[in-house]
Amino acid sequence: MADVLCSQGLHLCRCSEFTSADPAVSPPKDRDVHLHYVKHGPVQPAEGFVKNADGRCFRAEWYLRFPWLEYSVSKQAAFCFYCRLFAFENATAVQGGQVDSAFIGAGFNSWKKALEKGRGFRQHNESQSHSHAEKSYRDFMDGKAIDTQLSEEKDREVSRRQEVVRRNRQTVQRIFNVVRFIARLALPFRGHDETQHSLIHYLAENGDAVLADHLSGAAANATYLAPQSQNDMIAIVGEQIQREVARRVSAAAVFSVMMDETTDVSHREQVAVFVRYVNESPSADCSIQIEERLLALVDTAETTGEALASLLIETLEKHQLSVQNVVGQGYDGGSNMRGASKGVQARIKQLNPTALFTHCFAHNLNRALVNAACDMKIPDVRNFFGIVELVFTFVEGSAARHAYFLRSQRDLRPDEPALHLKGLSDTRWNCRASSLRRLSTESVFRAVVATIEHVSSTTTDGAIRGTAAGLLSSVSNFKFLLSIELLTPVLESINNVSEALQSAQIDIMKGQKQIEALTQELKRLRDSQAVATAMDKAQALADKLNIEAELPTTRQRKAPRRIDDNPASGTSLSPLDNVKVNFYYPVVDRLIEELRQRFPEVLVEFSCLLPCHFAALDGERNLRRLAERYQLQPDAVVSQWRLSHQFVTAAADGSADLMQVFQEVPSTYSELRQLYKILLTLPVTTASVERSFSKMSMVKSKLRSTMAQERLESLLLATVERDLLLGLSDADLVAVFASKANRKLLLG
Questions:
Q1: Distance from C-alpha of 112 to C-alpha of 107, rounded to nearest angstrom
Q2: Nearest to 372 by CA among 596, 532, 83
Q3: Which residues contact 492 (CB under 8 A, 6 or more apart)?
Q4: What is the model's pLDDT at position 238?
Q5: pLDDT of 697 over the 80 cut
Q6: Can you give the pTM of this predicted structure?
Q7: Distance between CA atoms of 394 and 455, rounded to whole angstroms?
Q8: HEC states along 570-636?
Q9: Which of 2, 114, 502, 600 has an alpha carbon 20 to 30 Å from 392's alpha carbon atom?
Q10: How far apart are CA 538 and CA 238, in angstroms?
Q11: How many other C-beta atoms lie within 10 A of the C-beta of residue 200?
Q12: Which residue(s) pair with 326 in the sheet?
């Protein structure tokens, strides 16, 4: 070996086997030559430095400051002696930076940045891969065989790589957890400045060491806080939730679809598609249960029956669900949905005749109430609700009036919270009951009267003063109080049934029983005893409010002489009887008739599955019809049905729970269990769809109106299906994230 030291102490090599003494040439694979490369040290020529376009060039004194430096005259670039010979082949990938690869293969020639802090030579000297390579060189010089050193270094590098992967995956899991937390609460992700005021920075500054290390040490292009990274993570969360929903539906074999549309804040028509199914493999702490899950949110430009039916079919196909497995459809009463020939339900039935359509019970019940309350043939009822609505708009129409209204309540009841009035709406299902409930409260009614009197005496606007005077005359009379007390029990009964129908766990047989119970309750309320009870309550409230408890008398209309020559033969009604005949009885009768027309008994064939109808004469015949409709074995179904009579312990008096009966049927009775599952799967209401629209108004608000459709769908899935969101596997999320693109951080 002919190594030479120049006058400046630089290490040169005159060995003939060291071709051209050029570090730009890759080290040979031959073991002996490679050993010679290691032992002779770095190539450090003292001359041959050419200035670049900036007038800068390599300087020989840098060798003394960084002994590992080598210089290639042919390439006019600097290299690292340690890393070039001892770095593991994947070391640059582990580090994820461009500086290390430059000092190993391409060469470094940005002389302006050579000595800058955090760049050039100084950055490379402090890098982890350089430290590992230098340690390998020291071990070699201490006398270990090169094969042993290389093998040990490779093992160490593999171990380091695994540690880096573990740490990086832990970091991405932390970011995913933040994404899930924000999405679950329907909070916005970004403000105008994400650098210091985000939730991730807050966690890093308050004890999360993993995020703190990531933010302080990660490259600027590998923090995963950018909008694209957020969208990728949000989309992955939404896809995983949809995949889990589709998996559960496929496991159930049969399912129902529910669909409705609404307009979002950016005036785009959004269609929510829900699925209803029986989950027979829930978590350990839950029994078999009915689930209604959001499958997709799709925007559409058309809302015709044809367009919506095509949208529904495409959505099911996208998630590998067959329309042939649909046994029920649940929509509202729009003609595009329920139309008998061109509606969505009719078009789906053309593809699958067994997909029974159910008009949402809650929408139907609300429509019955609206029709009765707005019946032109019952003007007293229509006018009464008009006054109730006018009271709300008058008091709540001004911030000053509203403040006076609340202050009046506090003066009357200092120890009780002040209550707000409730407005009326044709689409809000419980607004009428809650509105009358508030008005029947003494402190609220007193505050309403006080507010109207205050406005009437202080306003200078003649129109408002006239409205206040007329409104005060309308509410400060006994007939208005009696109307409240008469209709409050009726509306409370309807509201209670409506709330029961909105449960996702209710089955269609229970829904029909709720309607039957409501019909019986309305018939019970339509009698003189209910009117007498309301009269007593109204008189008690009138005494507290200092209102004369007397109904106004109406002038009796005489019959024309061409009909009756004797005027004295006409019958006269007392004021209370007049309220019964012209106000109370007509509205209750209209409600009963609406329920009879809107909720016919269309599922009588399924009644044979209830214990109370096991002994029905037509039970077996209906059962065979069901078996043929759903392509089951009629003889097997009948046999299993008769055998089940012996051990089904559910009550036979009509109070049996259909889910309880289903659970008692043995799993070997597959044909019979299939019928029970179909009956449980049939939809009752679209309340779950309506609730998702309420969530959507939180996710896509006025300040977030430009949100893309894919992001909106994923965020809505996360906030609606919270339990599925929390059950997602962190490892699966990170694995999918790593597979979507080539990530800067090593994740696997």
A1: 15
A2: 596
A3: 433, 437
A4: 97
A5: yes
A6: 0.77
A7: 10
A8: CCCCCHHHHHHHHHHHHHHHHHHHHHHHHCCCCCHHHHHHCHHHCCCCCHHHHHHHHHHHCCCCHHH
A9: 502
A10: 55
A11: 19
A12: 255
